[in-house]
Amino acid sequence: MCLVGGCLKMKVLIAVSPSATTTSAASGGSPLMAFYEELGDLAVELAFLQDSVPLSQQVGDVDVIIPALSQVGADDINSAPNLKLIAQAGVGLDGVDIEAATRKNVYVTNVPYGSAVSMGELTIALMMLLSRKLNEAQANLRKGVFFLPLGSELGGKVLGLIGLGHSGKEAAKRAKSFDMTVLAVDKYHDHIHTPDVDFLGGTEQLDRVLTESDFVSLHCPLTEETRGIIGYGELCKMKPSAYLINIARAGLVQKEGCIRALKQRKIAGAGFDVFWEEPVPFDDELLQLDNVVLTPHIATSTAESRANNFAQVARNMKLVARGEKPEFCVNF
């Protein structure tokens, strides 16, 4: 952070290519517009990730890192003597070495609420595409077969949520408008209050959610505790007619067990927006399955979501520039 004309100026590295921060004018313009509007008089110098250069060699004079999907490790943090804030423009911090940041007195923040609506909406969208058998319908259209396949309605079905944070609550709210029953489990269930859930229990009630639900949707963070929480055994407890939805983190699901269950039709299918390797390799088994609906990590890719997230990052930058603790700080 330096003084320019008597005013503070912060250098910010957005750890993605410049094109990833823009959207078409038809979808609301760039999220950076909201970022600059919120910054007000705080001057910034923006830099973007150079893919061919290690991150540690790009942060020497950086005050703020917005990591996106990039890994920010101890070497990167130690190579940034001016670093004051690692501000995720979204929820996930599993790629950030929070302990290393804490040792260097660097704030780490996220935006737990900014993408919740977008994520809740995509959850419902995937459920609808699966229940109406979109893949088969598209194949029928190309073959000239009309009025098939026979799908099913969401009304009267059971949605099971694993994790009831912001995105889980938004999914529950929308599911109730379809006349669905909503079950949920969350580690912190005692502190959660929402009118949109018919049953809420602790993680020890996971089997109930698995066995009773027509759709099981993952909305929990990826931690050592939750990594691989859904494997072959858990999928076999689900109804053969049920679907698995994952818009959270791929690591919540054990890949080999999941693909095995899908191939064996232990469940009817799955809708995934996150993957074990991104971009997905063209020869990935998942791409060969006919009972999955896949989207390229777009749960938070709406103009409104990006604007919310970048505006919150700007608010936190202003707080840090004033010597104050930022909002939604996870390490201090």
Automatic annotation (TrEMBL):
GO terms for molecular function: NAD binding; oxidoreductase activity, acting on the CH-OH group of donors, NAD or NADP as acceptor. Coiled coil: none annotated. It holds the Pfam family 2-Hacid_dh_C. CDD domains: 2-Hacid_dh_11 (cd12175). Residues 124-299 form the D-isomer specific 2-hydroxyacid dehydrogenase NAD-binding domain. It comes from the Bacteria. Residues 1-25 form the signal peptide. The keyword Signal applies. Gene3D superfamilies: NAD(P)-binding Rossmann-like Domain (3.40.50.720). Keywords: NAD, Oxidoreductase, Signal. Residues 54-331 form the D-isomer specific 2-hydroxyacid dehydrogenase catalytic domain. Belongs to the D-isomer specific 2-hydroxyacid dehydrogenase family. This is Hydroxyacid dehydrogenase. It comes from Abyssobacteria bacterium (strain SURF_5).
